[in-house]
Amino acid sequence: MKKLKSLFIASIAALTLLSGTASAASVKLSVNGTAVTSPSFIQQGTTFFGLREMLNALGVGQIKWDAKTQTVTAIKGDKTVTVTVGKKQVTLNGKLFKQLEVPAQSIQNKVYLPARVVAEAFDYAVKYDSKTSTVILTNGSSTSGTSISPEISIPDLDSQPSYKQKALEKLSVKLKSGKLEIIDAWSGDLSIQKIQIMDYSKIMIPSLPISPGYEGITIDLASFVDDSGRPLNPVDGEMYFINLVTDAGSIVRSETYQASTPTKADEAAVDDIKYGYMGSPIALEGDNLVGDNLVGDFSPKPAFTITQIKVEDSYFYTPASPITIDGQNQKFSLPLTQFKNTLGEDFKAATGWRQPYKVTIITNYGEFSWSF
């Protein structure tokens, strides 16, 4: 995957909801009154800035990187601070200084540090100016800006009902099989206004409710486009940042794309196709076998399409266009004479006692077989 424009994360940090619409604003960094340019992002309430940009701005004289252990050692005067990617311990002069909620991150070969803890280790006060979306670091105590809670939070969340905040925190967000899966198993009372995946975005007009329960909602990844209108084409095994803007605030998650892993909705759809409400959905219908039809009767939640039907793996029916099975069209009925073998001969069902026939349908969810 090509180098990502500023890792996108500079543009996904701290989204503020105004009048029910999303207004994106990057979290800025100011050190002793000087603006510092650095990529940034927020993950689970913790704000991160680029390692070198932040440490240089803090006046750190020595920065050592151990590639084997993924540990950065920052030395300034009589202070030595160590932070390891993926680990939650920050040490100061060899002793535990703080236990992190979210560890340092390495993304596309660039390391990002949690702003508050690293700044405080070097005796900087941390403030947040909500009007300018700026993290303000100053030597010693400072009265400028607005104090923030243990970690820098996304603005405006405190104005939301606590149950909505909890639901937002507990959202399950996955990238699977060409889709974005979002599951709210906690409240079912959130709606999405905008989603950004790296440089690719999708605005929901109107806002999209997140259905509660096991399946949640899925959105095709190809529907996300960049500024040039190009669709997202994810790479299997690649990690992506996902920013969800909801009516309760926004969250950023990092997820690895799993091309061959079905979503929960896909798994449920497979069960619907296999079993429906009454077991096998395939049957013969008619007063005599000469005029019999092969009938499929389904009760699907998501729609699916049928591109071919086989009987006994020898007789085939391929419709001119796929058969759509959905809430309005749950049934198909096809004369057995439409099923032909490679010689062009019609399928003829036996009368009286017989062995079960095997019927296979080929769908956008795969192949399914029954015997009747």
Automatic annotation (TrEMBL):
TM ranges are: none
Gene3D superfamilies, A to Z:
Copper amine oxidase-like, N-terminal domain
- The protein in question is named Copper amine oxidase N-terminal domain-containing protein
Instruction: List, for all copies, the residue spans of the domain called Copper amine oxidase-like N-terminal.
Output: 31-137
Q: Which organism is it from?
A: Paenibacillus agri
Q: Which Pfam families match?
A: Cu_amine_oxidN1
> What InterPro entries does this protein map onto?
Cu_amine_oxidase-like_N, Mao_N_sf
Tell me which positions the record assigns to the signal sequence: 1-24
- Key word Hydrolase present in the record? no
Q: Which UniProt keywords apply?
A: Signal
